[in-house]
Specification:
7-stranded mixed sheet, alpha/beta, D-Maltodextrin-Binding Protein, domain 2
Amino acid sequence: MVVGERPVVEEPRLAVRRRSSGLWSRRGLLLFFLPALATVLTGLATLAVSGNLLLPFDSVVVLEGKMASKRDFFEDEKVQRILLKHRIKVHITSTGSREVALRDIAAFDFVFPSGQPAGDLITGMRAAAGQYAKVHRPFVSPIVLATYREYAETLHEAGIATPLPSGGPDQPLYYSLDMQQFLGNIDKGRRWNDLGIQRHGISNANRIVAQSPDVCSSNSAGTYLALVSFTWRGSGPDVPSTAQGASSRAQSVKHLMEQGLPAADVFRTYISPEGKGIAPVVVAYEHQYLTYQVRYRAESARLDAERVLLYPSSQFVTQPQFIALNGRGERLGELLTTDPELRRRAMELGFRILDPAGEVAGDQLSEFLTERRIPVPALRSDNTRSPMPRIRYLEQMISTVGDCPPAQLPDGAP
């Protein structure tokens, strides 16, 4: 365009472009990455506080263990987390304590039989073969009879059971059971109706008996057999000291035993809604009941006053033996007996923690139960401490009572 003799130049036009609203804009990037970054930082902080910050970069050692009832300890989530802090993971092969002792254990790093007879057999066999075996005794748990209030009160009214002081509610959770009288009623074939259980709103024409796990595989059943044998010995020795004596004693008490359920199912049946009708009295470990009450209180804010314990007047305190079979297993055994977190968790699971001398360490369990408003069992001081037979005689008794194949014990077994 020309005005006069001078050309006219158009003003430049500036185009304003709209800001992109795409996903990958700066604002979008911030909105996307900030939550992810916060999650990462939170995770790192959690790992740092728990002592596991470097765990993803460390190798975790998987230990192979073989055990019976004490698998509950290693299957506990808190125990697993504590062990993971030490870069240890445990894989369990579950079997009865008797099977632990009598089957090949070469593929395992440790075994954890629930009682001393099986533990002594394993250590004796390995010592004879010049093989590695180191024993740790981290905790104990007494054998008890778990039942329901109507049955405990019926036994009380018959003079067979006595409530134990516990500082708990008006209704006692714990009773002392006169084993001689209890077995005497079983021997006579008496039934619950004969003792007058109808007064408590129940009719039960079944024989009075304590249901135990299969004696051929379970330590608790084998221990209960030894307890029954000790109580029903008459004028004989406390424990059989010959093969003939073991066979004779087993035959004399076989009718007093009622067993057959797998060990894992006996206590589960007891705490199930159908338990009272299936097995009103069962052989169990004290820690199983205490753990159940702690969980019940946590979930419902009250005790399960329907389920109670009978403490036999003749007492066996089973001593689980953690047996390390190599250096890897030994590291775990040391942790079980020295690590404060693992020891406290075992106590929280109802076990009585042992000190290095093998004695119950302090009063931690009582304090823990009191804090959670669980009555503390106060055992009678006049209870008889019952001895266990030597392993070869106990095995013979188990074979006779359980109709299972006799154990092939090695030469030199105790």
